[in-house]
Design goal:
four-stranded antiparallel beta sheet, single chain, about 120 residues, seven-stranded mixed beta sheet, globular, about 0% helix
Amino acid sequence: QVQLVESGGGLVQAGGSLRLSCAASGRTFSTYAMGWFRQAPGKEREFVASLSWNDGSTSYADSVKGRFTISRDNAKNTVYLQMNSLKPEDTAVYYCAARRVGVSGFSSWGQGTQVTVSS
């Protein structure tokens, strides 16, 4: 399995932008589908975005479509989440996750990074 470390969280005003990064260990990063999830206080963890390991296909939660973009750099073993037009309701701990080819479900998780959007 890969180990994941997120960074890039912080405090931003509504309408601002942040880019989260997730650095992965291991030599097989390119064979993992990657995802971002978030958990707000008092709420369950929810899906934000995912990116396939091979064909570049992406998926987004309706709440972030058109504002967030997931991307990856396999040479750097890193996946990104560009977040634009941030809203206070985007405030949450954001987690990076990895799903190995042929395996259902995300099996590797990072420790999370806090994103706080002020109104």
